[in-house]
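User: Structure with iron/sulfur cluster, tokens only please.
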Amino acid sequence: MIKSWFIHGIRNGILTTKYPKTLPTTDEIPIKSIPPFGSKDSDWLKGKQICPTNAIEDQEKNVDFGKCIFCRRCSDTGFDFEDQNEMRNIALQAEGLLNIENRDKMHEDFKKKIMTFRKSLHILMIDVGSCNACNLEVLNLSNPYYDLTRLGIFFTNSPKHADVLVVVGALNYAMVEVLKRTYESMPNPKIVISIGACSISGGIFQDTESFVSPIHDVIPVDVTVPGCPPTPIQILEGLLLSMGKNNKQQTAEEKHNPPD
Amino acid sequence: MIPKFVEQRQIEEINGTIQISSIFEINGKSLAILTDIENSKTILSDMPLSLGEHVSLLLKEQTNIGVQTDLDIGSKVEGYGVFIFPYGPVSSGIPEAGGFKLITYGERIVKLIPQINFKKRGIERRVIGMKPEDALLLVERSAGNFSSSYSTCFITAVENILGLEIASSAKWIRAVAIELERIYNHLHVFGRLGEAASQNVATAQVNALKERVLRINAKYYGHRYLFGFNKIGGVNYGPFTTDERKGLVSAIKVIAKEFSNIVAFFLSSRIFLDRLQETAKLPKQDALNLGAVGPSARGSGIDMDDRLMYPIEPYNDIFIGIETDKEGDTMARTMVRIQEIASSTVILEQLLDRMPSDNINKPQLSSSNSSSSLPCNSDKDFSFCRIESPSGDLIHVVQLDAITGRIKFLHIRPPSLVNWLPLSKSLEGNVFTDFQFAFESFGLSYADSDR
Ligand code: SF4
Ligand code: SF4
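Assistant:
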């Protein structure tokens, strides 16, 4: 029996992705999981009217990726993709430090925190009102294609053992207390990753009666991974950022004050 | 007594196998969608009189938002040594926000009370007043892993009202998506069962297969979970070229073949079989009474499948073999799912082989009611549709405002909602550790039942 599994495994070859050593492939991040990113002459105002989540902010080609549900409606009105590699780089931007107010202080904290987790990371997923797609994508991280354990990341079942709280879904009134208590019962230092448009901003559910607020209004969020749902690679990017393993990552400062 | 949350019940007075599948109130009138299981028929009717008094109760079940609901029916369990084991909403076994109260007496589960609505989003109320194409984005995100069933169900109902006769090829492409969705969901369920039985190596292989189906979804439909491929009056992807079709069929065939090899490994493992056989038995009569749908019903020997009961095109045109199993235990439900992966592969092959080649995105206004074999209301004020989602019968009832064309009423009857009570019934008397297997074998999703 064991021998036959061995042969089975050999026959299948190596399935695991090369990421983060190389950029992910089109298979790993399909075109619809890359944020809309406009070409120079796109007609943004038109996009603004049809955007279901008000993610398009102004004429200055700013898309709030935290709100965008990647529905690709606006791509009809002039978003196009030229450089595939560039696009994939854009797709990989888990954003650090969402809370703008005390960003500098938090950034210092965050830098300290991620030093602790360089070698291993235990994650706990909590669902606060998702559509189940985000949950499945987080679970998919443990399949042979992504193989979390090779990077020293493990799922855990108890908040007491968790370093990272992965939050998915649009915060529902019934889950506010649960979320707070889960967060509080985690030992310090702890990192919160908010995954998917729903948890970052409410996404498509932002106008439903049950939606309370974005997660970062309830507990401090360190990393956000936009997408609806983000692909496992994009989630992995967020996890690697919390391990300080991601050098490609822009710092929060650069993000908010881009060098000209 | 009709429990408040169960919409599907056998009505003994009419005939042994007529069930109420959905009850809704439209234009001040209570209507019911009935299912004739023996003849595989769907009937739209006024409210059966025998149910009259309970219905008001049922219709009053409002979407109580922000409060979780206990699906507690039947008698109270009390006594020395009985204790309540709360499970969820944050737990290792269920990766979703939902819970259970397991009432146990020693090792045995006396009663199981599912707790739902932790993540009720109130989609049905939210979409009122929205344009159908905007509502579609919400509807397909009600249950992410059943998204193509949801969007197809909703869109078909809307198109019925608008009198749009859409291209056959678009309908066939939707069916391909639904079958792909069935395959990856069944693989997911099987993987979860393997994980519960600690068959880690084999489970990793199953999960790899699931990942491959997801990548096929992304390749052909642009999205791993099939969001956004559907639009009113057509589809956004396709028609596939001959090469693409061949590639899709052969890829799925390889996956099905590898899966059958892995299943052979599983079925030769005594540990795995021990955990599944005789676990969480749901006898046929109970399944009928509680109104189980989908693979859970078929695992108990009930021959019901929406692809036969409400055959929208192309399901009226292709051969569908319904897999059933008489045993009613976890093994039976698993076997049904295993066989359905094979049968879906055959269906996919037929669909892609014989796909019509008309202009895919050219809907026409239908003058005559061409698909009149399906039951519908005469004045076309509202419409409904049933789709066999991976976990069973999904019903959408849609009403559009005649002047503005916006949504006036939406009723979703998700498959998971009606399967909670069969699950809790099946677990009565089982040991504590069987819970995980029973839960996974029903393939229920909280997102689906909480919509
Ligand atoms: S939500 Fe849709 S329309 Fe809005 S920015 Fe994102 S892709 Fe474009
Ligand atoms: S972000 Fe999108 S995929 Fe994730 S839970 Fe929300 S609706 Fe579902």
